[in-house]
């Protein structure tokens, strides 16, 4: 999973990015590292992995991972190629979801590009750039398809759809809110355009330390972002990027105490990871053994063979069946053998929908 961090300059994107990747990089043994200064990998905290690791005397624990990209350079006019904006917009096109940082904190030492703190105005500014960029994408596609559309009904249908989406965007609306979809084919097309304004968004309301304890309830700017996000069916999480950076320096015990002092039960990183799993409809299944205990991220509703395909395409192609015990059942029984005796290790076939916390052994033949 890949998340892109966007927002106006000086809202706290890089501070957040640095704290996330620092906290994440140290937490585990992960085969990725920081790829370049703007791309970082964060592991997904999952207590179940440690418990399984002990049970199996595991040599290696591999948590699920999220890749973050710090996308700078989004300013008014970015879509018109001012500055490096357009290139940065291209970076966002590959992400699964957008983390949109909005400044809700006052600090006279830190300049705001538009002179005052107004998160809704800032959101509109960024959204407009994303919308312009999407319009351009559609225009290019329409121009390319126009000639073929004259002799091909399917292409003509698609061009008509693109025209409708474009008109929707030209009203200043996001592709996400486009509802005039006739059938599955059209839904698939819309999905395939990779439009920026079609991607799920999580707003990170960057606040002062004082606003953390009540989760921003006393800050009317945060409330404004919440109302906006609710209308858009987006998620919001309240964070103080500066504090997050301090937390990232601490070890686990210190971190817990520090959070308790602030009246918090989890760090911004944990909140963000949960929000992204929710908004993308993701769950984790697990594989466990002595060599390695590992979490695999899949979309809710994924069937066993496709889940197996996450590990290796051979597992999907040659899928025979899956041997599954749920994490809770395994914990209640204490050992795999005991779970098997109680009939809690199930054999599931191609139609089985994988659940969060399923511990799976795939049988395959290629
Ligand atoms: N007071 C305060 N300052 C912050 C916070 N987050 C970032 N800053 C400061 O705001 C400035 C811009 O932050 P930066 O992360 O570089 O913003 P970017 O341009 O969005 O990447 C820096 O001086 C940060 O130290 C915050 O939560 N509180
Ligand atoms: Mg930056």
TrEMBL record:
It holds the Pfam family YchF-GTPase_C. CDD domains: TGS_YchF_OLA1, YchF. Residues 281-364 form the TGS domain. It comes from the Bacteria. Its cofactor is Mg(2+). ATP binds at residues 10-15. Keywords: ATP-binding, Magnesium, Metal-binding, Nucleotide-binding. The keyword ATP-binding applies. Residues 1-259 form the OBG-type G domain. ATPase that binds to both the 70S ribosome and the 50S ribosomal subunit in a nucleotide-independent manner. NCBIfam families: redox-regulated ATPase YchF (TIGR00092). Belongs to the TRAFAC class OBG-HflX-like GTPase superfamily. OBG GTPase family. YchF/OLA1 subfamily. This is Ribosome-binding ATPase YchF. It comes from Bariatricus massiliensis. The lineage of its organism: Bacteria, Bacillati, Bacillota, Clostridia, Lachnospirales.
């Amino acid at each position: 999973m890949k998340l892109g961090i966007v927002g106006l300059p000086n809202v706290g994107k890089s501070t957040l990015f640095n704290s996330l990747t620092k906290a994440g990089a140290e937490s585990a043994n992960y085969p990725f590292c920081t790829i370049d200064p703007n791309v970082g990998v964060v592991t997904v905290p999952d207590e179940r992995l440690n418990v399984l690791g002990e049970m199996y005397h595991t040599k290696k624990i591999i948590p699920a991972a999220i890749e973050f990209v710090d996308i700078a350079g989004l300013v008014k006019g970015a879509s018109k190629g001012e500055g490096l904006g357009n290139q940065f917009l291209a970076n966002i096109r590959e992400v699964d979801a957008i983390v949109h940082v909005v400044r809700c904190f006052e600090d006279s030492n830190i300049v705001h590009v538009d002179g005052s703190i107004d998160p809704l105005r800032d959101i509109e500014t960024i959204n407009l750039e994303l919308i312009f960029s999407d319009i351009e994408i559609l225009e290019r596609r329409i121009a390319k398809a126009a000639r073929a559309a004259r002799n091909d009904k399917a292409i003509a249908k698609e061009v008509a759809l693109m025209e409708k989406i474009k008109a929707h965007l030209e009203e200043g609306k996001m592709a996400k809110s486009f509802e005039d979809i006739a059938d599955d084919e059209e839904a698939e097309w819309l999905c395939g355009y990779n439009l920026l304004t079609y991607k799920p968004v999580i707003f990170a309301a960057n606040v002062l330390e004082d606003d953390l304890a009540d989760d921003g309830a006393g800050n009317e700017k945060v409330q404004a972002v919440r109302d906006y996000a609710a209308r858009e069916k987006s998620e919001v999480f309240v964070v103080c990027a500066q504090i997050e950076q301090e937390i990232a320096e601490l070890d686990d015990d210190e971190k817990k105490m520090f959070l308790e002092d602030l009246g918090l039960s989890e760090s911004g990183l944990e909140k963000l990871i949960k929000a992204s799993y929710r908004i993308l409809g993701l769950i984790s299944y697990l594989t466990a053994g002595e060599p390695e205990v590992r979490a695999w991220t899949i979309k809710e509703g994924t069937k066993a063979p496709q889940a197996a395909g996450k590990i290796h395409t051979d597992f999907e192609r040659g899928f025979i069946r899956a041997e599954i015990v749920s994490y809770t059942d395994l914990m209640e029984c204490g050992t795999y053998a005991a779970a098997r005796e109680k009939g809690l290790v199930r054999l599931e076939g191609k139609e089985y929908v994988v659940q969060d916390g399923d511990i799976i052994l795939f049988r395959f033949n290629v």
